[in-house]
Fold this protein.
Amino acid sequence: MSEFKRFRCRRADEAARLKHRETFLSAADFIWPVFLVEGKGIAQAVPAMPGVFRYSADTALKELGKLVPKGLRSVLLFGVPKKKGVEQAYRRDGIVQKAIGLIKKRFPAVEVISDVCICSYNPTGHCHIGDNDRTCAVLAEVALSHAAAGADCVAPSDMMDGRVFHIKKRLREHDLGRVRIMSYAAKFASGFYGPFRDAADCAPESGDRKSYQMDPANRDEAMEEIRADLDEGAESIIIKPALSYLDIICRAKQNFSRPVVAYNVSGEYAMVLALSGGLKKSAHLMEETLISIKRAGADRIISYFVPAVLEMLSEKK
Ligand code: PBG
């Protein structure tokens, strides 16, 4: 008998490693964020996020045509309007509203989730219009317009107090209570959102988002935020960002028996690509970071890596 434990036989070859693997990625884990612009035939590269594009509805449908056969189940839509104005966010013929209808028609089995926020529409770039409760009323209108267009689920990302309550109430008033709410319950005031703000054209004109997004130092408060959103009627919750907040994901999973969704944000994507030297060479780091998010306890992952990861998973089959 040896006096020490031997682990390396578990790692001797790929079959041994697979037998001992505790965490797996699967296509059903993923939600793909899509930036939508007006127009036709558009696939506009986002410079800060290599491999990510802003699509017009028709090209977005084309991309979905490639990803759905590879197992994509769920998309998260962001509108990037040409013309600013908060009221643009709840137009019945807005970019997101139109895209929701088109996607549901063509891919009825795909879960369509819409991001509910006004920052890309608001001339100030902020997620509010000054007053918390008046903002909630606007967000409820936005959510209602997405739900009426056929969204399966709405995802408020603004971090106003009581927005889930207001949205749920508004949806019920219009007999749309069945539309799910996946709230960004614990969204931290993070430096990792930088590239997204280019993609969605939503950098605040002045100041920062620290008066509404959470202090990265707070763990207990994150649990309070999650509990409040679930009590107000959210069916699942998002922790955002993911990589610097794995402890929050882990604790949320232990505390709440609801789907915990992690948002692998734009800065995390750009960071992995920078270290790997491009999307083509990023497979190892991509897999390692996504696995770490799942291992921490995330049930679902929102990630810009979705096209690459679906490709990887379909090659492995
Ligand atoms: C804004 C919003 C942001 C993200 C999603 N919705 C940016 C922000 O709060 O400044 C960030 C996503 C990412 O970085 O990938 N409501």
Summary: The chain has one domain: 25-316. Residues 25-316 form a domain with the TIM Barrel fold (CATH 3.20.20.70). Strands lie at 30-36, 43-45, 53-55, 74-79, 111-116, 153-156, 180-187, 236-240, 260-264, 300-303. The longest strand covers residues 180-187.
